[in-house]
Amino acid sequence: MPIQIIAPAPFLSAEEEEEEFQVEEDEGGVPLDLDNDGDTAMDGVAASKRKQGRQAAGIVTPGEIVTDDPQWMRGHGTYLSSPTADGESQSIVSSLAGTISKTNKLLSIRALRFRYVPEIGDLVVGRILEVQTKRWRVDIAAPHSAALLLSSINLPGGILRKRTSTDELQIRTFFSEGDLLVAEVQTLNSDGQASLHTRSLKYGKLRNGYFMTIDAGMVRRMKSHVLTMNTSNGGGEVDIYLGVNGYIYIAKHTTPLTEGGVESKSVSITRLEEEASEAIYSNVNEDISPETRAEIARIGCVLRALVKANVKIDEEMLNLGYEAALEEFLEGFDWGSDTEAGKRVVDLALAKRRMG
Amino acid sequence: MPPPTPLSPPELSYLFTSLSLTPPIRPDLRSASQFRPLIAECSFLPHCNGSSRICMTEAGECIVGIKAEVEKDATSKYATIIEREKWIEVSVEVAGGGASGPGSGVGVGGISGAGGASGRDEGDGGAAVWLKEGLLACGGDGWSILDRLVISKGWHWKLYIDVLLLTPTSHPSPLLLSTAVNMALDSTYLPKLTSPHDVDDIPAFSDDWAISVPLYEPTTFPRPPISLPVVAIGDNVFLDPSVAEVATAEVGLVVTLALSDADGSCDIVGVRGMEVGRAGGKEGDRKGINRKLLRKMVTTCVNEASEVIKTLGETTHKQMFRA
To answer: Where are the annotated coiled coils located (chain B) (predicted)?
Structure first.
């Protein structure tokens, strides 16, 4: 079967919708599922129907009136409608598409999908959008593109060196448009625009691997966002850069250059630094075996399957998912042609986590 | 819409090497001729003769509505080919992408040669041109979709095919547009004529939709055409390439095919070039295209297309007659 066509989720029938409207009428707007004392009143039958149908209730769209009851306070994702002439109370209107969340008397809307909001100290994977005279503009999936200053990268010839005009002229030799890099959010300005830095040997240009994106918010914040995984089937070690912004890079594990290989004995410290720094900005991949490539693709598929099943990604989940994928692989399944495969892997991984 | 950011050189070289291995390793572990699953439904727009909605990962979502209008032939006796071709009007619109009409949808689907100067002169651009082209060219032995549009002497149906792309930031694949149009055409029904065929009077139609006439008879051939994107990387040929694969590819084609008989053999209706990336490897390593590879690309499409068109047709009919 070269192609699989999935029928969409069924619409709610008119009767079912009518039923829901009757419940809502006294609220004067969108279903809040509240009775007067503010408790959630969930009708069992209606709730289960909502989950199946495409028009899931509880989801509001921008401009939709959430409530005109003055007892509620407006929270994030909402605004007050303009006051009416006859002195009626203003209603709370949603400014996002998402679900209603209530904390005591505070109403806020949690968006279904959102962009990444940078925070200081986050490890992010980004792509260079534009090269300017003294800095780069970097796409990090945030509302604003981030800035990477020439002074906040490792310059060749010593880690801590003052930047010179020669560096400014050679700015494209470090990063040029389209390059991928891993960096840390250093500062945020008042609009929430991030400024990045790569002043550590952990950060810098990304090579030897495959880039993919998932929804921001699907990566759980962890102690370390650079994972090294021992893969089977002769894949060797694989590094996974889980950017908090949902950009992910999966690459063959490479030993950091400054730790040195065989040559480190014969080369003086300063010379080594110089070589290392220049190699940091190289655009040439190492030799990567087909086995490693297959495992990198498998990890990518595991990540996609987890996201599709709405499971947040952390180190534990990723390891379990990979194990599950390997077990399924031994049973001889073909990931590409079997759309259920991803779901099975996730189920297996979740079962494993429950067992501990 | 900003142009998609190019991939970085290490990324391109990684993908290029992975995809030119034997067997190739696609980033999503698909086999070379495997399509990505898609979500499809048809005949859901109430005021259209035929409609469809297709969702694809990465390529986004697309809605097609087909409306038919009764029109008097421009010339009383013999309609010229150019006039007859105006009986079908295709427009591709990108939601939030501004004005529709001439020149809209230029470059949608990344097909080169469409939407250039010649495309615009015809009053429409880009994707609309090759979609219509495939439609008109479809069918051998003197069969043409235009013959089905004739109502009676001096009267014909004018078909408006409106394609709306709902996700402007995505990278619409030609497959998305052509499957959507294919499904919509397959679900198009026209009112049954009640007045005699050979009279010049204004035609009259039955208002009973139960006896309406399908535009494409479900059991006869040819079926509506479908366009399959195919790229070649090294000596490997890939169907339904992802955005990254298109960027890595050395050559890309969009092959338009139509099912010609019940055994599943396909007619090639048209072949167009597709814009692909700069190809992996260094400038000097590029090989250029040889005839063998082109042949392989087209035959791969022909081999796989029948299965795809059949599956699509089955889904359409299942949804049409579910009530």
So the answer is: none
